[in-house]
From TrEMBL:
Subunit structure: Tetramer of two alpha and two beta chains.
Keyword Lyase: yes
Entries under InterPro entries matching the protein: Aldolase_TIM, RibuloseP-bd_barrel, Trp_synthase_alpha_AS, Trp_synthase_suA
Record protein name field: Tryptophan synthase alpha chain
Keywords: Amino-acid biosynthesis, Aromatic amino acid biosynthesis, Lyase, Tryptophan biosynthesis
PANTHER family (alphabetical): TRYPTOPHAN SYNTHASE ALPHA CHAIN, CHLOROPLASTIC, TRYPTOPHAN SYNTHASE, ALPHA CHAIN
Organism, as annotated: Jiangella aurantiaca
Length: 264
């Protein structure tokens, strides 16, 4: 299934899609696969597989902690592709969340080729803007991959239009300015940003940064096409007594959030 099909399916059901993130390799590669599969079984529609990187610019302390552990355990880009392959085998779309440097080092064309071969649907590049590099978008197009770029409350209308024109699959709207992490309230600017983004594209718009519970998921699902949750899932793994408990906790949160995006 592609991300487009997942969003269409959610729309047909009168709800927003639920997008869940976890980094590959935490607590281990196999245990990250188990956690991602549990998320899907519990109601996550689209999975973001995080590619561990040593300089995560927009990631808050929760994700940084897990990513650092994954790197220290030796997680490689090849491992990330193995996680993608395992997720894709469930039928759910798997998109990689990665900063640009690891992809550039791997080689844009080589990564696009290998990600497509693993069954991946695309890549979210939080620190890459469409006008900053001329290698990624052509490589992704060649292999039929989604190119998901970010828009922010600070983005001008012109910048939003430029960004969405380069997107495929969906557009990622950040609800607040700052690093990732759960928040008591989702930024008030999110609804306005979604409206401004929709004025430039027919692609689905998913909102992330800060969502941690069903109430917030319901709030965002009222105006966005997708709800993205990351740090809250990672926190469940970090706080768990053991990997099995972490998988169970992640599944419980996914079920709660899946209920949230279905609230009318």
């Amino acid at each position: 299934m592609t991300t487009s099909v997942a969003f269409e399916k959610a729309r047909a059901e009168g709800r927003a899609a639920l997008v869940g993130y976890l980094p590959a390799g935490y607590p281990s590669v196999d245990e990250s696969i188990a956690a991602l599969r549990a998320m899907i079984d519990a109601g996550v529609d689209i999975v973001e597989v995080g590619l561990p990187y040593s300089d995560p610019l927009i990631d808050g302390p929760v994700i940084q902690t897990a990513v650092d552990a994954a790197l220290r355990a030796g997680t490689t880009t090849t491992d990330v592709l193995r996680v993608v392959e395992a997720v894709a085998a469930t039928g759910a779309p798997a998109v990689v969340m990665s900063y640009w440097n690891p992809l550039d080092r791997y080689g844009a064309r080589a990564f696009a080729r290998d990600l497509a071969a693993a069954g991946g649907s695309g890549v979210i590049t939080p620190d890459l803007t469409p006008d900053a590099d001329d290698s990624w978008v052509p490589a992704a197009r060649e292999h039929g991959l989604d190119t998901v770029f970010l828009v922010a409350p600070s983005s001008t209308d012109e910048r939003i239009a430029m960004t969405t024109a380069a997107c495929r699959g969906f557009v990622y709207a950040t609800s607040v300015m700052g690093v990732t992490g759960t928040r008591e309230q989702v930024g008030d600017a999110a609804a306005g940003l979604v409206e401004r983004t929709r004025a430039t594209t027919e692609l689905p718009v998913a909102v992330g940064l800060g969502v941690s519970n069903a109430v917030q998921a319901t709030e965002i699902a009222a105006f966005a096409d997708g709800v993205v949750v990351g740090s809250a899932f990672v926190r469940r793994l970090l706080d768990a007594a053991d990997p099995a408990a972490g998988v169970a906790s992640v599944a419980a949160l996914a079920a709660d959030l899946a209920g949230g995006v279905r609230e009318r």
